[in-house]
Give the backbone structure.
Amino acid sequence: MIELQSICDFLQEFAPPHLAEEWDNVGLLVGDPQSEVSRLMTCLTVTPASADEAIREGADLIVTHHPLPFRPLKRLTTDNTPSRLLLQLIGAGVAVYSPHTAFDSAAGGINQRLADGLGLADIVPLIANAQDPEGLGAGRYGELTTGVLLSEIAARLKAFLKLDGLHMVGTADREVRRVAVACGAAGEFLEPACRAECDLLITGETSFHTCLEASARDIALLLPGHYASERFAVELLAEELGNQFNALTVWASREESDPLRRV
Ligand SMILES: [Zn+2]
């Protein structure tokens, strides 16, 4: 048994809350810090499937990338999905912690791991965080030591994320040197990626009009999907937590899946 507070302390060091975006809702969102945890599940999102799994498997704590609750709630009833899930988890005594955008931006966070996974060098944040003493911030960009074809980077990304397809804006034979990464739905990083003179922005998903804008600005896009761009990291986070707290049973949700399917 580990006190919930100790796990929160570790997560706050791992993904410091000051790195989170202003609009976000990170940290311990449900639960008593003095309670004891023996079983911990990580997931990308609390959904009916992952909430059922957590309760069925006896989790005391869910570490979910996407916050629940995210928006302020005026009532907790069964007539909307977030409240219904919260009622279910609170009823079963399951605590909820979300690192979200603090995890995106952390030194060992999602964007750093994506940039490392693609083999980028000289990796730096796309947007510096004024409050961070070590110069961390949101998104990352870095260099490929030699120019690589866009089709080759797409293949690397698919291999890293274990995907068999993704969306691409730009031509396959374009040479790429400087690459920006921003997990999730991060079309707003197009502008900083252009300012940093990147040849390519990789983000999970973005709008049609952002794709057109990228095309007009002559920057390529690779869009592996929101789920794929972040899910791998909650699996790594489960490993990290298991290594840190030997007394815990930790797993990444086996029930959640990408709601978008190719048919
Ligand atoms: Zn996300």
Remarks:
- The pocket of zinc ion is lined by residues 66, 184, 226, 230 (CB under 6 Å).
- The chain is about 35% helix and 25% strand.
- The domain at 107-223 is CATH 3.40.1390.30 (Udp-n-acetylmuramoylalanyl-d-glutamate--2,6- Diaminopimelate Ligase; Chain: A, domain 1).
